[in-house]
C-alpha cells in the first residue's frame, strides 16, 4: 500500500476562497465590509442592545426632550447621542430607524433585481420585436434620473411604505434589465448554450439554469450599488415629507424631524441619523465598487 | 440629416403622448379628485354638481381627451390651493429653479474640471488621491444631508452665509434674478454648491479619465517630439480633445440638476418649482402635480432630443446606424 498522508491534506484553493482573499486585498474594501456587517448586526439586534424602545410610549419621557449628547436621561441611562424633540434616545431611534431603512432598501433592491433580471433575460433570449420594445422602454426610463422617476411615482401613488417600495422598484428595475440583457447577449453566443440546445433542453431551463448563473457577477455589483441608492432615495423622499410616514421612522424621517431644531443650534437630532445613513450608504458603495474590480476578469492583473 | 431629425421628433412626440397617458391616468384613476375639491361638509348634491362641473361623470377616455385638448392650448387646469392656472404657477417659479441649476452647472464645471485635470496629470500624488476619494464621497453622500451640513456649518455655526430664500433680486427682462446683487449671490451660493456636489464629482472623474487616456496618445507624443511646452500640450491639445465629451455629459446632466433641485430647494427654502411640487404633493394639489410632471417630461424629451441631434452632428456614425435599423 502506498503511504497516504492523512494529517495534512493539500490546500485546495476554491473559487470562493480565491474571491475572498482577493476581496480583502484592498484594505478600504475590507474596512467597509466589516462596517457594513456591523451596521446590519446593529440593526438586527436593535431591541436587545438599546436602552429604550423609542416607540414604546411608556419608555419615553417628554422631559428628556432635546438633550445634548452625553446627557443622563430621567430614567437613569446616558444618552450618548442626545435625544430628539419628543424625548427619544437618539442612539435607540437610529438603530430602530436603520432596521426600517435597510429593509426598505433591500426589499426594493431585491424585487427590482428579480423583475429586471427576468425582463432582461427575456429580451436577450427572445430578440426581435420583443427585445426592441423592452429596450425602448428601458432606454426611455433611463433617460430620466431615478430620483425624478421615484418622485413622480410618489406624486401619483401617495406616501406609505408599500408605495415607497413600489416607486423604488419601478425607478430601478431598468438598471438591472439593461445589465442582464448586455451580459446575456454575450453569453447566448457561447458554445455551452449551443450544446444545451443540442441536448434538447427547454428554453426556460437554458435561460435560468445556464445563462443566468453566468450573468450573476455584474448583477451582484449593480444590486449592491442600487440597494445603496434605494436607501439614499428613500431617505431623501422621507426627508421631503413624501416618503415614509411618522409611524415608520426610517433614518430619513429622523433627519426630517431634526431639521426644525437645526437653526437653533441643536444639530445632533439631524446630524447623527445622517451620519448613520452616510456610513451605511458609503460602506455599501465601497463594497460594491470593489466587488466590481474583483469580479471583472478584465481588471485582473 | 433632416430625415434623422424628423424621425427623432416623431419619437419624441410619441414619448410625450405616452407619458401624458401615464401621468393623467395615474393621477386621476388611482386617486379620486372630487374629494380634494369639495369641502368636507358638502352634501350629495354639491358633490354631484362638482363631478358634473369637472366632467368626472364622463368616461375616462373622454376626460383624457378634454385634458389633452386643454394641454395643447397650455391649459392644465387650475390649482386647488391658489386658484390660478397650474401652468402659470409652474412657469412663474421656473426662473428661480433655472437660475439655481445654471449656477450649479457653472460651479460643477469651474471646480470639477481643474480638479480632474490635476488628478489626471499627477495620478500618484497624495492630493490626487484625496481628490478621487472626495469624488467617491460626493457620489455617496445623500444631497439633502450635505445641504443640512452646509447650513449647520456656514449658516448656524459660522454665520457667514444665509440659509434660506433668494435674497435681494433684480429684475432683468421681466425675470427676477439673484445673480446680480451681492445679497442675492450670498443666498444662492450654498444651495448652488449643494446641488453641484454630485456633478463636481462627475466632472472630476470624467476629466481625469479623459486626461489619462489622452496623455498616452500619439498626438501628445508627437506634440512633445515637436518640442511644444507641456503647458501648451495640456491646455491647447489635450483640453480641446477632452472638453467635448465632458461638456456634453455635463449638459446632459442639466436635466437631472433640475430634478434634484427639488431636494435642494426644500432645504434652502428656495422658491423654485421643485418646492412648489413638494408643497403641491403634500397639499394634494393635483393640477399642479400633473402640470409639473408634464413640464418635466417635455423638458427631458427636449434635452434628449437636442443631445441626440448634437451627437449626430459630432459623430455621423450615430445617424447612419439609425438609418440601418
Can you tell me about this structure?
- The complex is a heterodimer of chains A (301) and B (325).
- Chain A is mainly α and 301 residues long.
- Chain A contains eleven helices and two strands; from the N terminus they run ααββααααααααα.
- Chain A has helices at 15-23, 27-49, 90-126, 128-142, 146-157, 161-188, 191-198, 203-214, 216-240, 251-262, 268-295, and strands at residues 71-72, 78-79.
- In chain A, strands 1-2 form a two-stranded antiparallel sheet.
- The radius of gyration of chain A is 24 Å and the shape is globular.
- The model of chain A has no long low-confidence stretch (mean pLDDT 82).
- Chain B has a two-stranded antiparallel ribbon with strand order 1-2.
- Chain B is an all-alpha fold.
- Chain B has 14 helices and two strands.
- Chain B is globular and about 85 Å long.
- The model of chain B has no long low-confidence stretch (mean pLDDT 80).
- Classes of the chains: A mainly alpha (301), B mainly alpha (325).
Which helices and strands occur, and which strands form pairs?
The complex is a heterodimer of chains A (301) and B (325).
Chain A: H1 15-23, H2 27-49, E1 71-72, E2 78-79, H3 90-126, H4 128-142, H5 146-157, H6 161-188, H7 191-198, H8 203-214, H9 216-240, H10 251-262, H11 268-295
Helix pairs in contact in A: 2-3, 2-11, 3-4, 3-6, 3-9, 3-10, 3-11, 4-6, 5-6, 6-9, 7-8, 9-10, 9-11, 10-11
Chain B: H1 2-30, H2 34-37, H3 44-54, H4 60-72, H5 86-121, H6 126-140, H7 143-157, E1 170-172, E2 175-177, H8 182-215, H9 218-225, H10 230-252, H11 254-267, H12 273-282, H13 286-314, H14 316-324
Antiparallel strand pairs in B: 1-2
Helix pairs in contact in B: 1-4, 1-13, 5-6, 5-8, 5-11, 5-13, 6-8, 7-8, 7-11, 8-10, 8-11, 9-10, 11-12, 12-13, 13-14
